[in-house]
């Protein structure tokens, strides 16, 4: 469920140094944003940012960009990061952008991205909105334009219908299905090192099976 609009969210985002304004200016030059060239990973639709902050903490050898299109949701992530930084943590390898994911090819150069995470994406349940799903063929083509050939897209969801739709989209595209499970938390191998999102923790505690796939370009 989308958070209600928070007054002043847009202004707070514009004033924040952790949010990159006009990100298209850095196309092909994202290493300059971080001051060091490291493998670059994106989370598309990052929500409140817990997953990405955990990943940035665990993997200082990587750079991360969190992508969120809703001001109110992004503001929650900024507030969470502020709490952590005030407690002494630093995330020099993490920035955020507020943008519609359809614009990814305008923001990242071909072969600039090493990996993409999609976590508990909006299912857009109505058939006429299928193209908006982040695992649709339309979006897979966008990922192809920015992702390195050996790069992967990792997708997790508790929505079985969305997951089955995603499997069909992969089957009809130029991607290989490398990992697939309909119950991540009961797969002893795949669950090793799994970093949970807020939704994942909530849904799994309710007994909902978590589906996961990892795909790579053919």
UniProtKB/TrEMBL annotation:
- Which UniProt keyword terms apply here? Methyltransferase, S-adenosyl-L-methionine, Transferase, tRNA processing
What general EC class does the enzyme of this chain belong to?
A: transferase
Q: Where does S-adenosyl-L-methionine bind?
A: 43, 68, 100, 122
- Binding-site residues for substrate, renumbered to this chain: 126, 158, 197-200
Source domain of life: Bacteria
Which pathway does this chain act in? tRNA modification; N(7)-methylguanine-tRNA biosynthesis
- Reaction(s) this enzyme catalyzes, per UniProt: guanosine(46) in tRNA + S-adenosyl-L-methionine = N(7)-methylguanosine(46) in tRNA + S-adenosyl-L-homocysteine
Recorded GO cellular component terms are: tRNA methyltransferase complex
Q: Name one GO molecular function term.
A: tRNA (guanine(46)-N7)-methyltransferase activity
Report any Pfam family annotated for this entry: Methyltransf_4
- E.C. number: 2.1.1.33
Coiled coil regions in record: none
The family assignment reads: Belongs to the class I-like SAM-binding methyltransferase superfamily. TrmB family.
Family annotation (HAMAP family): tRNA_methyltr_TrmB
**What does the protein in this record do?**
Catalyzes the formation of N(7)-methylguanine at position 46 (m7G46) in tRNA.
What is the name of the protein in this document?
tRNA (guanine-N(7)-)-methyltransferase
| Native species | Blautia fusiformis
Report which gene this protein is encoded by: trmB
